[in-house]
Amino acid sequence: MDGAAGTRAATAHALGFGSRVAFLGWPTGSGTGDDRERGWREAMAAAGISAPRWTAEEDVAAARSAVEAAGDTVDAIVCASDSLAIGALLAQAAGSARVPVIGFDNTPTAEALGFSSVEQRPEDVAVATLELLMGPTGEAVTPREVQAGTAHALIEPRLVVR
């Protein structure tokens, strides 16, 4: 999954609300989280803008605390997950300025609460996996035919705007 492409799209959308688009992500060192943060950084750099990067563990309460403690005025928040987005929304309910929040994973909770989120499109992952397993001829490949690291597919997620 191209997590950077997902957060790039989310950040491009968020820039429509103003130039200060914060990123709420996990601590550095998470491969998935670092990839998602990279998309935000690339979109912000392309726009020639800098904005705050906040950190929280994958925990709603920790995300809420991080946003409340930041005290920064931002125009939107792009999050590394829907759980972090929920924490950001709760911080707003507790008194932080109300701004658009965009999550990642497009969980049923994102739909129920009505916030935008990046969807990983599991059906595309399934199709790509089958194509990798079946090979170019449509016949199943045997483990001897595949060299480690040679077969891959990078799926681009899509932003679901609510």
Describe the model.
- This protein has one domain (3-121): Rossmann fold.
- The chain is built from six helices and six strands, in the order αβαβαβαβαβαβ.
- It is elongated, with a radius of gyration of 18 Å.
- Strands 2-1-3-4-5-6 form a six-stranded mixed sheet, sandwiched between helices.
- The chain is an alpha/beta fold and 162 residues long.
- β3, α4 (82-93) and β4 (101-104) form a beta-alpha-beta unit.
- 43% of the residues lie in helices and 14% in strands.
Q: Give the overall average pLDDT.
A: 90
Largest sheet: spatial strand order:
2-1-3-4-5-6
SSE order in H/E notation?
HEHEHEHEHEHE
Shape-level CATH architecture: 3-Layer(aba) Sandwich
Which spans have pLDDT < 50 for at least 5 consecutive residues?
Answer: none
Report the β-strand fraction as a percent range: 5-15%
At CATH level 3, the topology is: Rossmann fold
- For the record, the CATH class is Alpha Beta
Major sheet summary line: 6 strands, mixed
Q: Using DSSP, what is the number of strands?
A: 6
Helix content: 40-55%
CA-based gyration radius: 18 Å
Q: What structural class results from the helix and strand content? A: alpha/beta
How does the overall form come out from the CA principal axes? elongated
Our count of domains comes out at: 1
At the fourth level of CATH, the homologous superfamily is Response regulator
> First CA to last CA: what distance?
22 Å
Count of individual helical segments: 6
